Task: structure prediction
Amino acid sequence: MRRLRNVKIVATLGPSSSDDATIRALFVAGADVFRLNMSHGSHDDQKARYDIIRRIEADTGRPIAVLADLQGPKLRVGTFSRGTEELDEGARFRFDLDPAEGDATRVCLPHREIFAALEPGASLLVNDGKIRLRVDRCGADFADCTVTTGGTISNRKGVNVPDVVLPLAALSDKDRADLEFACGLGVDWLALSFVQRPEDVREARDLARGRAAILSKIEKPAAVKAFAEILAESDGIMVARGDLGVELPVYTVPPIQKRLVRAARAAAKPVIVATQMLESMIESPMPTRAEVSDVATAIYEGADAVMLSAESAAGQYPVEAVATMDNVARSVERDPTYREVIEASRKANRQTVADAIVAAAREIAETTDIKAICCFSQSGATASLVARERPRVPILALTPVVATLRRQCLTWGVHCVLTDRVERFKQAVVSAVRAARDHGFATDKEQIVVTAGVPFNVRGTTNILRVAPCDERLIFNMDPE
Result:
């Protein structure tokens, strides 16, 4: 099965998409990566979904990536004696550690670490930012505030603290248990929620022990400020616009999205744009025009993937939502302006031999009649470097490592093929030619570019490039390496 687009689609599974038939339909409609949201559902629920995905993978012969999204630390107020209260603008309100039920003047905020970090003038946001309060006075166990935006506050609503870096562990006890479960299950990517600092990523990497790649969700102002350091520690990035749009002025999110996508692309690390992309399709079979434009914008920016959350997990039209994303992606990538935008945003990254090899592969492919760039890679690094170039021809990533194969399902334009281990470059070329022909990328009379590293099966040794005919009889007449 060959996708007729380069950008990848991530679909979240949930109550609307937990059975074999629906998950299979989502894959056929265009889902390349399935997200398991560890905030919802039991471990048994997630295992059942994972097992279905792997059955579909075996039946279709195509790799599928699975991303486990960890919940992260959740900050919530306590409960109210009447269930809800109205907070009026200008009113005084206190958060404290007293577990007694709240009223119109106070409520418990059972997070001592918040009070330790607060300073006068800081903001507290409740219920996705619908209620905003300014801290006037605070101590180790309280914060006296003024309501700047009023509204209805109710039991256990979420709290955001945008102005300070909270001294919170990146991973709660639940997250640690979920991480171990997900790694044991065999997921390919772990998404970390509410990352604030590079140390958060390192902690998760230590716990994962190489069993899954680490993807950092950027959804806090602190993460935006420390993005360069977080990116360096991460294998991939998600621009999680939901909480980012709560904690920052909503009009600042689009330029932040653009900067983060470009930075991740320059680092040759996959980047997902997520949250409310086709939100209306939770209840409608058709998206709004604004939503279609939002998806298209992420694709024009060069994002590796776009993601569906509630649309595919809990909506009434999960398959239609994936099909809509697929259609939008195909339409954008056929637009001549798309190539102009993508190529104008390409930066020269020629610091290593591997950088030069993949840049040369792209230039050769675009100036001659080359049908595909085929790269052999143990770790997937070569394919990621080629994808950073955003070539006009397809990218085939060939690897004998199943974990690498699946992780590359998140990378722009990469068609993954499992191969046998090779020891000589001529064997690699033959395998590439067969893959290009078998998967419909080239015919006997056409040519491909092959990149690899010698010695083989050693990470980070990309150092060779060859233009090869797709006729095996001609390959065996090549000069021996």
User: Anything to note?
Assistant: The first strand starts at residue 8 and ends at 13. The radius of gyration is 24 Å. The mean pLDDT is 93.
